[in-house]
Amino acid sequence: MRAETEAAEAHMAQLLTAGAAPDSVEAMDGAEAMRRHIDRWFYPCGPHMHVALADMYEADPRFAAHYDARAAGLAAFVAAAIRANAARTLDADGA
Q1: CA–CA separation, 12 vs 30, rounded Å?
Q2: What is the pLDDT of residue 94?
Q3: What CA–CA distance (Å, rounded) separates 95 from 84?
């Protein structure tokens, strides 16, 4: 579980530092991997729940510090990628 978390966060940091947009396919796929990880290991995490977590990642200084310690701006990047992925998923589902 921890190795998956580390890999997902490292991947998102790599995308950010490489200049990827948070709404790029790669970033949205990374956000989807993070959502599935939460859903698998912790609790049901659909797109709406994941967006609520994205809001918390930016609003709660502890979460922001966790992500931004890996790469400056990562909390905002991850949150934006989560929101873009949720929109993509919900649009595809017709919701």
Answers
A1: 6
A2: 60
A3: 14
